[in-house]
Amino acid sequence: xxxxxxxxxxxxxxxxxxxxxxxxxxxxxxxxxxxxxxxxxxxxxxxxxxxxxxxxxxxxxxxxxxxxxxxxxxxxxxxxxxxxxxxxxxxxxxxxxxxxxxxxxxxxxxxxxxxxxxxxxxxxxxxxxxxxxxxxxxxxxxxxxxxxxxxxxxxxxxxxxxxxxxxxxxxxxxxxxxxxxxxxxxxxxxxxxxxxxxxxxxxxxxxxxxxxxxxxxxxxxxxxxxxxxxxxxxxxxxxxxxxxxxxxxxxxxxxxxxxxxxxxxxxxxxxxxxxxxxxxxxxxxxxxxxxxxxxxxxxxxxxxxxxxxxxxxxxxxxxxxxxxxxxxxxxxxxxxxxxxxxxxxxxxxxxxxxxxxxxxxxxxxxxxxxxxxxxxxxxxxxxxxxxxxxxxxxxxxxxxxxxxxxxxxxxxxxxxxxxxxxxxxxxxxxxxxxxxxxxxxxxxxxxxxxxxxxxxxxxxxxxxxxxxxxxxxxxxxxxxxxxxxxxxxxxxxxxxxxxxxxxxxxxxxxxxxxxxxxxxxxxxxxxxxxxxxxxxxxxxxx
Length: 542
Fold this sequence. Notes:
Blueprint: H1 3-25, E1 33-39, H2 58-66, E2 68-74, H3 80-89, H4 107-113, E3 117-122, E4 139-142, H5 150-157, E5 164-170, H6 199-211, H7 217-251, E6 258-263, H8 279-287, H9 294-297, H10 308-311, E7 312-313, E8 316-318, E9 326-333, H11 337-344, H12 359-363, E10 373-376, E11 380-384, E12 389-394, H13 396-401, E13 407-410, H14 426-442, H15 452-460, H16 483-491, H17 497-506, H18 514-526, H19 530-540
Parallel strand pairs: 1-5, 1-6, 2-9, 3-4, 3-5
Antiparallel strand pairs: 2-7, 2-8, 6-8, 10-11, 11-12, 12-13
Helix pairs in contact: 5-7, 16-17, 16-18, 17-19, 18-19
């Protein structure tokens, strides 16, 4: 063999090796399609891929096997509107919101600007054009839970030859007056054989019934078991619908080039602990004069608490270049979804994003184990650190009206959050409290002024009592009240705590003469309410 031939063969071999190396290291293909499936009110621990004992969700399990499962994902709130505002903007919240603010660019707008065709199919009436969730969508369809999938399937199958972003929002697991289960008998399975409750849950229910003198224990527990199983049937129904969407993508030959995300806006209480004495609970017990029972004293649904069962949601990503069979244990949050999808599709972020892309974690699951996750409601804010320690801090209003105190739980050792460790770990309470303050400081401002039509929807979903009590902000405008009147109100121990708190908060930023300052110092020292004392001290600070 001549030296020339040997040299050419050598170059060929090197070239083959170079091509092989390049093909191994080449960036994965960008998805042509994104399908974001949000299943309303879906607890992660009631799904198959998260280890639930019942096979409620085989299609979700399939996606987890083919992609990445984020084991510890949380929503930014425990009810739909604020949670979805946060998910669709990639921003934290400083207060609850019904609508997307005009100055926050949405996930759909980002994809639309990048040339994607966009469509939304939403089975929740409060996510509407009135609350600005239609922004960025060329097609925006409002559907009912348990509805026919024809329109969605048709859209997915027609996506060939173009780039598309699709948001599908299912809502079967959402209760209807604390009742769960599909409307058709052929989808009822688990409710026919109600599952037993955990030992810890039973012990809690027994102790609670005894301490409150309730005589309905046996009947209520039977109902709780039945409805929790009905919830499982609803989860299975949503998963069945997800199967239709996967099949449509496969028929159209689009499945392998589609990024599919499974998420949820929040979890569900399912009678795990006592409900706050507000909203529909108060309506039922006080205004409807119903006899107190386990069913109406415990949190069956969701909306104003921030315990783990209400925040822990599934997050599964199946996309080209990630997976299969990857499990990420680091804590992540729904605010991370927007930056993840933008990076995955090489789409420029259209505005400020406070979440963090999860692609690095998806490709190297142990690369970031220090993440802390944040959630908030009207009454409490929550942060969970990398060790699974959750701090719940009440708002001043909740401390006054509901008597809430800081709570600290070790979710690994105490998954049902029964033992408050706040008094034992004050240094951790302080450190995590600073994280909450930082997240609130950068979050979108709250805005809770529903129209009459929106109020009807909120009442129908159980978020507001018939008397209007619930999530709606009703703070009076005290900005024009004279300083002397506010000082009198803030100092009057005979007034309700909330009235004193609102007066104290209205004093912030005002100038005081020496006698007024002395009275406020005295009122702060004598106050029996931590929230009022803190508001007075803030008003007195330079």
